[in-house]
Amino acid sequence: MFAPNDIFAFILILTRMVGLFLYIPFFAHKTIPFIAKGGFSMAFALIVLPLVDVNVALPDSLLVLIIWMAKELAVGLSMGFAVRMLFFLIDFASHILTVEIGLAPGAEFDPSTSRGANPIGTIMYFLGVIVILSGSEYDILRAYIASYEVAPVGFMEVNHYAADFIIKQTAGIFKIGILMAAPVIAVNFLVNLVFAVLGKVVPKLNVFILSFSARILAGISIFSFSVLLVVGYIINYSNNTTEVMMRFIMFRPAF
Fold first, then answer.
1. Residue 26 to residue 168: CA distance in whole angstroms
2. What is the helix, strand, coil percentage profile of the chain, to 5?
3. How many other C-beta atoms can be found within 10 angstroms of the C-beta atom of residue 86?
4. Are residues 43 and 10 in contact, defined by beta-carbon separation less than 8 angstroms?
5. 169: helix, coil or strand?
6. Where are the beta strands (DSSP E) in the chain?
7. Whole-model pTM?
8. Residues 69-126: pLDDT tens digits?
């Protein structure tokens, strides 16, 4: 039989786990039933319950319970947002690649946002999911368990350093996204330069129409050769997931 303190600890752990699952891409899909999300959250909470130390007394009022649950939900959401940053990076890089290659008109379904997307974005999204599910899921679970040492259950104060780190990581998305698309950007510049010279040498040549085919051919070719470069950036970013999740926590002990 579970004691009241154990049930209270399970509720708080479950609340933080729900916050985490609300932002993790492969659990946050609208296509996954709500019952399945709740079942996964409860299953993982039961696994984590004996692994963490939640030494808090039962709250003396409903307001205190709501405040604690809100704080736990905020911690879980901030950690899930840290994982989601990888897919923000992938989305930005795929947008640049699509524009540079010339495939922007070709819309497809994006499973990460349940809306229209581009072919390159769909490919890179599943590439990111494969990387995450190749071992990073254990890092995410370990980071969740370690979060109870960084932000234990109880009243907390706002961690002002987290906001600065979030801004820094957001700026890094644009930097890494451009680096991932750099080979295609360089080739696209050369293709446009060549056709600009041809337009001056052969005025009757319709360089505007011909450049589209050349851009798509050159862009897809270079992208296929630079896939390992893209995967390398994704792996390097995912290897820092644990540290990013810890730094994204917006609360710290009030002492």
1. 25
2. 75, 5, 20
3. 22
4. no
5. helix
6. 108-110, 115-117, 156-158, 251-253
7. 0.79
8. 888 888 888 888 888 888 888 888 888 888 888 776 555 555 555 555 677 877 888 8
